[in-house]
Amino acid sequence: MKAAKIIAISLLVYVGMVAAFETLLGIFQPGGQSTLVITTTDEDGMTSDRVLARLESNGQLYVAANHWPRAWYKRALENPSVQVTVDGGNGAYLAVPITGAEHDRVNSDNSLGVVFCVMTGFPPRYFVRLDPSITQ
After folding, report:
1. Do residues 130 and 63 lie in contact, with contact meaning Cβ atoms separated by under 8 Å?
2. Domain locations in the chain?
3. Which whole number is the average pLDDT over 12-26?
4. How many CB atoms lie within 10 A of CB 27?
5. Lesser CB count within 10 Å: N end or C end of the chain?
6. Which homologous superfamily does the CATH classification assign to the domain defined by 2-132?
7. Which residues contact 41 (CB under 8 A, 6 or more apart)?
8. Which pLDDT tens digit goes with each residue over 78-124?
9. How far is it, in rounded angstroms, from Cα 11 to Cα 47?
10. Closest Cα partner for 74 from 105, 48, 55, 109?
11. Rounded to an integer, what is the distance from CA 60 to the centroid of its chain?
């Protein structure tokens, strides 16, 4: 019974740590040269900005949903026309979810460290390729 209590308390502490870490990332949204800002639009036309890690593979630009909070990802799937601010410039992009071999390649090219996985609670990882929109 004592071991079960210790396991339950340890699990609760771990879940609290993950929730606190994810909340702080969401509030402060740290930026830098390895990040970009994606602007997504919901079904009501409201826009929302999110700072994300900038990922590259085979010369293409990607972002990943590698945290439990992922409202931006859901909005990008529902309305793939997004705005991206990267390297000081802003442009229109098409958010294309990827799977299969492309997913595996991007994941391999941009692997996460074990500490990051522990701190975020081992969420599933989904990628979006950002293809520049061609406007005429």
Report:
1. yes
2. 2-132
3. 82
4. 7
5. C
6. Electron Transport, Fmn-binding Protein; Chain A (2.30.110.10)
7. 47, 48, 75, 79, 81, 82
8. 999 999 999 889 999 999 999 999 999 999 999 988 998 898 888 89
9. 36
10. 48
11. 16
Q: What is the 3-state secondary structure (H, E, C) of 21-89?
A: HHHHHHHHCCCCCCEEEEEEECCCCCEEEEEEECEEECCEEEEEECCCCCHHHHHHHHCCEEEEEECCE
Closest C-alpha among 23, 75, 24 to residue 49? 75
| 73 token code pair | 């990802």
**CB of 84 closer than 8 Å to CB of 91:** yes
Amino acid at 96: V
